[in-house]
Design goal:
16% strand, alpha/beta, elongated
């Protein structure tokens, strides 16, 4: 059987993916980054990949998972203090706003590890295996999803994703407003220790409307409720696993293309697994042309997209290989849009940041649905047809790559 013939197995592979997602959720409990459930899930995928791949490995790495959303508690505390201090020491208010903003910028907007050391260290895992090329390896294609699941966003669960987006937007406006009036007071009054009873005080009273917003941000992410992560992102993991499964069981080995299935840990903690993998394998990844194809939340076919910009639109993913995925979809009669990740990130960005060819595939509405990062992300909420169709497109995509596309 040739690679192109595997597309006829799409329904069989959809059954495999559905059963696998259900098994992981039932067997390993909550899989937050650095948890025992995530570790057990990594061991499961190691055993699974050993059925289909060569050189299967599980690699541990250290991380501080609380840092990715933990900055919120510090920044919000700074904002509340800045709101109060504005009435007495505007300079202190401005300083606290700047410190809180820097923390938010580095930890969330740019996904850096600047303040990770402030939070508890844990261990997470990456799992990968490959089907090597028959002949000379001219290229490597890594298909990937992340094993960990997100802590619930309570506001999304109760009011929908739009409420969460609105909360973040108003909080950000509040930060800018308090900084602006603090600077205004310093410019007009100098570095004093009390405001005059004029417009400065009125501006300060207006800032109090943001206090409930800041307090609500303390509850942005639940510490107790972890989602099942059926869509986000066992869907991506099992698309990768189903590719190597179909190849192995049908005797398909490509002449010059090595195919890798990679399951990363701790994506929900700021792409820590993907970053650890790139760091550990940087030289070998750059030695051979490597394309990383990350799947994240494959749930709604009408929103299937390749994301050419990632990490809050600050990182560019590979243009040529992204366009090739759109071509693969069109070859089979599907629509795949060119999009970006406006808020958040996918694992592809960790590869793109290192100058590697990162491709990000999602199938969700970026106007977040009520299943995204909530307890509704269950096996009953997956779209099996979406998994089936994206898997078929991915086989077509791999076939195009193996035939030498995109043309250099």
């Amino acid at each position: 059987m040739e690679l192109k013939d595997l597309k006829g197995l799409k329904q069989q592979m959809a059954d495999y993916m559905e059963e696998g997602i259900a098994e992981v959720i039932k067997s390993f409990g909550k899989r937050s980054p650095g948890s025992e459930g995530e570790k057990q899930c990594a061991e499961y995928f190691k055993n699974e990949l050993e059925k289909y791949c060569e050189d299967v490995k599980i690699e541990s790495f250290s991380l501080h998972p609380g840092s990715f959303f933990g900055w919120i508690y510090i920044t919000v505390t700074f904002m509340l203090a800045a709101t109060a201090l504005y009435f007495f020491v505007p300079l202190a208010s401005a300083i606290l706003v700047v410190l809180g903003f820097i923390l938010m910028l580095t930890q969330f907007v740019l996904y850096r590890k600047t303040f990770d050391f402030l939070f508890k260290k844990k261990t997470s895992y990456n799992v990968y295996g490959s089907i090597p090329a028959k002949g000379e390896t001219k290229r490597k294609v890594i298909f990937s999803g992340h094993m960990d699941a997100a802590n619930e966003w309570p506001l999304s669960y109760r009011l929908g994703g739009g409420a969460t987006a609105g909360l973040v937007a108003f909080a950000f406006i509040g930060i800018l407003y308090i900084f602006a009036i603090s600077i205004y007071s310093l410019v007009t009054n100098g570095i004093g220790f009390a405001l005059n009873t004029g417009i400065d005080r009125i501006l300060g009273y207006v800032s109090l409307v943001f206090v409930p917003i800041f307090i609500t941000m303390y509850h942005f992410s639940s510490k107790k409720v972890v989602t099942d992560g059926a869509n986000d992102n066992l869907s991506g993991c099992f698309i990768a696993a189903a590719i190597v499964k179909a190849m192995k069981e049908n005797g398909v080995q490509l002449e010059n293309t090595e195919v890798v299935a990679l399951m990363t840990g701790a994506e929900e903690a700021g792409l820590r697994g993907a970053k650890a993998f790139v760091k550990a394998h940087r030289e070998e990844l750059k030695k051979t042309e490597t394309v990383f194809v990350g799947f994240d939340t494959i749930r709604e076919m009408r929103f299937l997209a390749v994301n050419k910009a990632d990490i809050n639109n600050t990182v560019k993913n590979n243009e040529e290989y992204s366009d090739l995925y759109i071509k693969a979809a069109e070859n089979l009669g599907y629509k795949c849009a060119s999009s970006s990740v406006p808020i958040g990130a996918t694992d592809a960005a960790a590869f793109s940041q290192e100058g590697l060819k990162g491709v990000s595939i999602t199938a969700l509405d970026h106007n977040l649905r009520d299943y995204y990062h909530t307890r509704r992300d269950t096996i009953d909420n997956i779209d099996k047809e979406c998994l089936r169709d994206v898997w078929e497109i991915t086989v077509e995509y791999l076939d195009l790559i193996d035939k030498g596309e995109p043309k250099k």
